[in-house]
Amino acid sequence: MPNSQNTTTSSIIFLLTGVPGLEGFHIWISIPFCFLYATALSGNSLILFAIITQPSLHEPMYYFLSMLSTTDLGLSISTLATMLGIFWFNAREISFNACLSQMFFIQLFTVMESSVLLAMAFDRYVAISNPLRYSSVLTDLKIAQIGIAIVTRGTLILTPMVVLLRRLSYCRSHVLHHSYCFHPDVMKLSCTDTRINSAVGLTALISTAGVDSVFIILSYVLIIQTVLSIASPEERKKAFSTCISHIGAVAVFYIPLISLSFVHRFGKGAPPYVHTLIANAYLLIPPVMNPIIYSVKTKQIRKAVLKVLRSSMAKS
């Protein structure tokens, strides 16, 4: 028992895993991952800079987009060091405290992304159903309050989940099955009862992404009802077009999340590298795709980004 308790201290070292079975190809595998990280970091930074510097984008819709870009940057940075460290230097070791910190921030930014997508759905509903009151409903103060609520919600929900991992004893293998710290992964290494941890983790998932997805669907039901009540086909098309980018962002967030859940539950016979690649895609696809979706589908963002790029090229 003493040995078991000693392994609950911060002296524990976990070993992260790259792509199982493909260790000899890690350098080559790192090339597309580097490209994805560069795309995510540069794309979201560019959109964030454009929104901050362009007065024409100082509107509720773009403030929410800046929140989405911020969470995508945080999500990318949270996994960057460990993932590329494994691929480049085989740096697999991570301390218990560092593991919990990484896990917390990955989960926090994921929950924040889900919350921001819900806020954006509400933004689209207000803009379409009551355009004359749009600016008075979503004031700068209200948007700031929504932003604070998003961060507070994620922190309050996730803190117990991470803290409860400290009460466990880790006397089994310390090898994790991902290139970052994943809550179910860490729990599986415990040799003590994890039912409370599992219940808290499931509650956190249902009360964040689960609840948010329900309200996003409800928002779009109301949006569709409102749009169908518009007499002019041209106006209906215009109203729907303002939602395309957001629908794309919702899809690239929830489809990888659902895929990861299905693979973990039903894909036990799949090769280990399939689990790893889907888990990595789950964290990388939204930060990579969101800037592309909004730059392609939103004319104002496309113009602002091109303006920023031209300005920087002219200065250089």
TrEMBL record:
What topology does the record note for this protein and the membrane?
A: Multi-pass membrane protein
Q: Which residues form the G-protein coupled receptors family 1 profile domain?
A: 43-294
Note the superkingdom of the native organism: Eukaryota
Primary location recorded for the protein, binned into one broad class: membrane
Q: What InterPro entries does the entry give?
A: GPCR_Rhodpsn (IPR000276), GPCR_Rhodpsn_7TM (IPR017452), Olfact_rcpt (IPR000725), OR51/52/56-like (IPR050402)
Q: Which GO terms describe its molecular function?
A: G protein-coupled receptor activity; olfactory receptor activity
Keyword list (alphabetical) reads: Cell membrane, G-protein coupled receptor, Membrane, Olfaction, Receptor, Sensory transduction, Transducer, Transmembrane, Transmembrane helix
Does Cell membrane show up as a keyword for this record? yes
Q: Could you confirm whether the keyword Cell cycle appears in this record?
A: no
Signal peptide boundaries: none
List, alphabetically, the CDD domains matched: 7tmA_OR51-like
One of the GO BP terms on file: cellular response to lipid
Q: Any idea where this protein resides?
A: Cell membrane; Membrane
- Which family does the UniProt entry place this protein in? Belongs to the G-protein coupled receptor 1 family.
PANTHER family per record: OLFACTORY RECEPTOR, OLFACTORY RECEPTOR 56B1-RELATED
- State the name under which the record lists this protein: Olfactory receptor
Source organism per entry reads Cricetulus griseus
Write the gene name: LOC100753877
